[in-house]
Write a structure and sequence with these properties.
The structure holds two protein chains of two kinds.
Chain A lengths: L1 E7 L2 E7 L5 H8 L18 E4 L2 E4 L12 E3 L12 H8 L9 H14 L5 H7 L10 H17 L1
Parallel strand pairs in A: 1-5
Antiparallel strand pairs in A: 1-2, 3-4, 3-5
Helix pairs in contact in A: 2-3, 2-5, 3-5
Chain B lengths: L4 E4 L3 H10 L4 E3 L5 H6 L7 E4 L9 E4 L2 E5 L4 H6 L1 H6 L1 H8 L4 H4 L4 H7 L6 H7 L3 E4 L3 E3 H4 L14 E7 L3 E8 L6 E10 L2 E7 L7 E2 L1 H8 L4 H5 L16 H19 L4
The chains are: A alpha+beta, B alpha+beta.
């Protein structure tokens, strides 16, 4: 067993987990933060994307033990004071979802993307979303939403 | 996943000792290949020794004509490093094209090189730039390091500490990524070095990364796309799988080499 302490959505959390526990499972099963989705078993779909120390990572491809001492933000921690993050607002306004399963991961990736590229080009958006799959293939509105999210972030 | 013991190494020496004593233990860096492998139950290590946070494996440094990058440096940090961009822009560009953003935020240079996936990008750069792989035991020349698919000169308990890339006069990397995985279907790294032109090919060799000597000879007389266009790469030693036949891949290598040569000669 591994004893871990990490910050999740601004709150310090300590737990004892099996060494093989994936961060995604820790967030979902232990902390009940089920907004982080697990959409595949092969580290390809990106639905489980969270931020670890400010960077988008696939939480299904990281051990909870590796997140020891880290700052983790999940989709539940993105809105501040009841106000949606620009990426969340943009996905809502642009209807950037069909079934919605990939959406938490898409939004977490978008939030990191517009931080790195405040005015992303179409190419930066398409390449920036390469680690996230939408099986409904609703990419057109997703790309629109990323652009809109950058605008909302700028206006903030 | 089968169960294993996770152990965060406190020092490089400790990591080396644990790994040397236990054949079934594995080092864990970014985990971008290892963790998916474990999830599929394709490996059953006794322990994972986490070396990602070791200070000995960190740092990027350009000194005396050699760019040195610590083994635990993440792909995103190589891609975003001003030092790398100034010293060997082709290497920063290569790192920016590995996998996807999430992979680049975790995966490391040392992990990729130690794994020696036949379709990984870094081995092409290491071989073309004639880099030195510095381990906790010795220095290994690129030519001796890569020994076929997923096989390297690393011994049990031996860990890559850093990789030293001699600065080339110019270099370019072009790859045809598999559209789903981002892995190279064919990737060609051309480096103009003090010892002549070196051309390394990844993604295509039946036994991993290799040097295309005919292309090196052709480019030695002057870098141009035309010099490559006249060549034919024999398909005998080229990998064949569901993604492409060996003839298709051999042609892809030629096209990627042509593009890299064109980029180097200043013509697109």
């Amino acid at each position: 067993m591994a004893k871990i302490t990490l910050t999740v959505n601004g709150e310090k959390r300590s737990a004892e987990v099996e060494d093989r526990t994936l961060l995604a499972n820790f967030l979902r099963d232990e902390l009940k933060l089920t907004g982080t989705h697990v959409g595949c078993d092969t580290s390809q779909c990106g639905a489980c994307t969270v931020h670890v120390d400010g960077r988008a990572v696939k939480s299904c491809t990281m051990l909870a033990a590796q997140a020891e001492g880290c700052e983790v933000v999940t989709i539940e921690g993105l809105a501040k004071n009841g106000k949606l993050h620009p990426a969340q607002a943009a996905f809502t306004e642009c209807h950037a979802l069909q079934c919605g399963f990939c959406t938490p991961g898409m939004i977490m990736t978008t939030a990191a993307l517009i931080k790195q590229h405040p005015q992303p080009t179409d190419e930066q958006i398409v390449h920036g979303l390469e680690g996230n799959l939408c099986r409904c293939t609703g990419y057109l509105n997703i790309v629109k939403a990323v652009k809109h999210a950058a605008e909302l972030q700028k206006a903030k | 996943m089968y169960s294993f013991q996770y152990r965060k190494a406190k020092s490089l020496a400790e990591a080396g000792e644990v790994l040397a004593k236990d054949d079934e233990a594995k080092p864990l860096s970014g985990g971008m290949t290892l963790i998916p492998t474990l999830k599929q139950r394709l490996a059953q290590p006794t322990q994972l020794v986490d070396i990602a946070g070791l200070p000995e494996l960190a740092g990027i440094d350009n000194k005396n004509g050699v760019l040195t990058i610590g083994a635990a440096t993440r792909h995103a940090d190589v891609a975003g490093s001003k030092v790398v961009q100034d010293a060997i822009p082709a290497l920063a560009c290569l790192a920016a094209g590995i996998g996807d953003p999430q992979v680049r935020n975790r995966g490391t240079l040392g992990g990729s090189v130690a794994n020696n996936d036949p379709a990984a990008d870094y081995p092409a750069a290491v071989l073309a730039l004639n880099a030195k792989v510095v381990t906790n035991k010795r220095e290994i020349a690129a030519a001796d390091f890569f020994q076929g698919m997923f096989t390297t000169a690393l011994e049990p308990g031996e860990l890559i500490v850093k990789i030293a890339f001699p600065l080339p006069k110019a270099a370019a990397y072009c790859k045809f990524p598999h559209p789903a995985s981002g892995y190279a279907m064919a990737g060609v790294f051309i480096a103009q070095t003090g010892d002549g032109v070196r051309v390394a090919v990844t993604g295509a060799g039946a036994s991993g990364v290799f040097r295309w000597t005919e292309a090196e000879q052709a480019l030695a007389r002057g870098i141009s796309a035309e010099a490559i266009e006249k060549l034919t790469l024999a398909a005998d030693d080229i990998n064949e799988d569901i993604h492409g036949t060996r003839e298709y891949r051999a042609q892809l290598v030629k096209v990627m080499a042509t593009r890299a040569a064109a980029a180097l000669s200043g013509k697109k």
